[in-house]
Amino acid sequence: MGTTDRLVVIVLFDRVDLLDVTGPPEVFSLLQREMDEPTGYQVVLAAESMEPVTTSAGVRVLPDATFAEVSGRRVDTVVVPGAVETDSGRRVRAVVDPEVVDAVAVLAKGARRVASVCVGAHILAAAGLLDGRRATTHWSTAQQLAAEHPAVRVDADPIYIRDENIWTGAGLTACLDLTLALVADDFGDELALRVARQLVMYLKRPSGQSQFSVSLEPVSTTRRIDDLRHYIAGNIARQLTVTDLAEHAHVGERQLTRIFRTELGMTPAAYIESARVEVARHRLETTDETLQRVAAACGFNTVDTLTRAFRRRLDTTPAEYRNRFRIAG
């Protein structure tokens, strides 16, 4: 493909998430600073008509072209953002416009690749583009996506997923990670890394990195589980067992397991491992400690145990994680 033939069409519609629309073009623009020759990227915002589109943030955006106009052009990449609505209980639900679905289906037929940002995956699914594929979306609408589209293999954990020429991204800021991955696919990891540094991102996150971290999980609804979480964090280097936790909480082991499943959606052992991985990530990012010392400090005891936990939780190794995320002192 020539350097003047990378037409990127970003789909616009009312209530679209603003960052989904503005994030990818910023990454493509920053890439140009790192290259002597033109990148070839031409970003076009396309909508049903040329009327201004009001985003979820209330900011109005002017389309560059209509869906009909760009459907007749040679499209390299279609980027599909999303939109949500929130009910009185603050529950989030992805909203899908059938006209937008139809337009995306048409554009996708002639495009080299298609990428959804955040809940834009719901539009791709409605267009039949994710059937039989593994895909991700924002964690808050993953259950909705799985329920409405059983043919899609929904994985709410990764930052982004590539399945052949279909890419799906997770939360709002993950649009930057996804676009960096598209840049790396076109121009290689080194240039993508330079752009990541301009964005003041620690480095390009791997596709398997989780959307979640233990420290960002919702506040517990009971003081008992909140106390247990603080107890685990304060004793992370110790050998923590269900028996120990049950004694600390003054409950039986079976009741403790039920509490963890109800409050945090996982077993005590799974939570402890997640908490240890979170501490290990921080130490790998901010210190020069050996892997042996990191493993001991986080309660893993051996490097092999640490490595197995990282592969389960992050689909990478501690050494690879440090190489990507080490913050220079």
Description:
The longest helix is centred in the C-terminal third of the chain and has 19 residues. The chain starts with 5 loop residues before the first strand and ends with a helix. The strands form 4 sheets. It has a 7-stranded mixed beta sheet, sandwiched between helices. It contains 14 helices and 13 strands. Helix 1 packs parallel to helix 6. The protein has 329 residues and is of the alpha/beta class. About 2% of the residues have low confidence. 45% of the residues lie in helices and 14% in strands.
Instruction: Give the radius of gyration.
Output: 22 Å
Contiguous helical run count: 14
Q: What global shape is seen?
A: globular
- Structural class designation: alpha/beta
Give me the count of strands: 13
Question: Span from first to last CA?
Answer: 41 Å
Q: Helix and strand string, N-terminal first?
A: EHEEEEHEEEHEHEHEEEHHHHHHHHH
Mean pLDDT: 88
**Helix fraction by DSSP (H/I, runs of at least 4):** 40-55%
Give a short account of the largest sheet.
Answer: 7 strands, mixed
- The strand order across the widest sheet is 5-2-1-6-9-13-12
Low-confidence runs (pLDDT<50, min 5 residues)? 215-221
**From the structure provided, what is the oligomeric state, counting identical versus distinct chains?**
single chain
What fraction of the residues are assigned to beta strands by DSSP? 5-15%
